[in-house]
Amino acid sequence: MKNKNDYSVKDPAYFSHVRMDIIDVLPANPQQKVLEIGAGTGNTLLFLKQHKMAAEVTGVDLQSIPGSNQQHRMIDRFEIADIENDTISLPAGYFDVIICADVLEHLADPWMMIEKITRWLKPSGQLVVSIPNIREIKTLWQILFNGDFRYDPSGGIMDQTHLRFFCKKNIRQLLTTENLQPVFCTPNFMLTSVPAGKKRRIINRLSGSLFENFLTVQYIFIAQKK
Predict the structure, then answer these.
(1) Domains of the chain and CATH, by start
(2) Are 136 and 158 in contact (CB under 8 A)?
């Protein structure tokens, strides 16, 4: 992952908002053990615990965020570590769910990371990821018609901390391994917990989903351990 100083220009909301789009697709199991990679301030994990949607929650993030919920008493464990380069002692076959929300595109080798974190999943456990879609229409327009592959320090599909770029097909390939099989996919704008997606939902419905790949800013996938 890039040097953590590259994240210093981002709005605090980048690290702190509760990922309701991810929560919407999680299994309904109050006894589940959840690990979040790239957990930021820990607010999503805290939400799961407070709303009795998980019995145990663990977070890993690249940087310590003072005054955040990383060390909240309801979060069972929180590690400050570089997931690619540091050794993290987590039990094999332990977690029901692992969340990687907008993480894999920041890594030098997301394929290796998928193999690594799959070991921490129980058999039939689920890996839930969200990954930006570079095929999104505004991004394509900027590249193809403006000839501009400009990075954005504030975030988005062209976030300057992104090292890898994916289309839907490539995300499916990333999550299809000897031990993992994709079982669910949705454009994030299709979830009502994404208010900004309302206009795109209407366009998608009127067009019979013809332009869905171009309307999608992020895809949310679930892959299940075999």
Answers:
(1) 4-225 (3.40.50.150)
(2) no
Residue 79, phi then psi, degrees to nearest 5: -110, 135
pLDDT in tens, 193-208: 888 899 999 999 999 9
**Whole-structure pTM value:** 0.91
Using CA atoms, how far apart are residues 197 and 65, in angstroms rounded to an integer? 30
C-alpha distance from residue 214 to each of 18, 22, 139, 167 (Å): 26, 21, 9, 10
E strands in 82-217? 95-101, 121-132, 180-187
Summarised one tens digit per residue, pLDDT across range 97-155 is 999 999 999 999 999 999 999 999 999 999 999 999 999 999 999 999 999 999 998 88
Write down how long the chain is. Answer: 226
User: What pLDDT score does 5 carry?
Assistant: 45
Q: How far is CA 107 from the centre of its chain?
A: 12
- Give me 198's structure tokens: 């309302």
What is the C-alpha to C-alpha distance for residues 226 and 122, in angstroms, rounded to an integer? 9
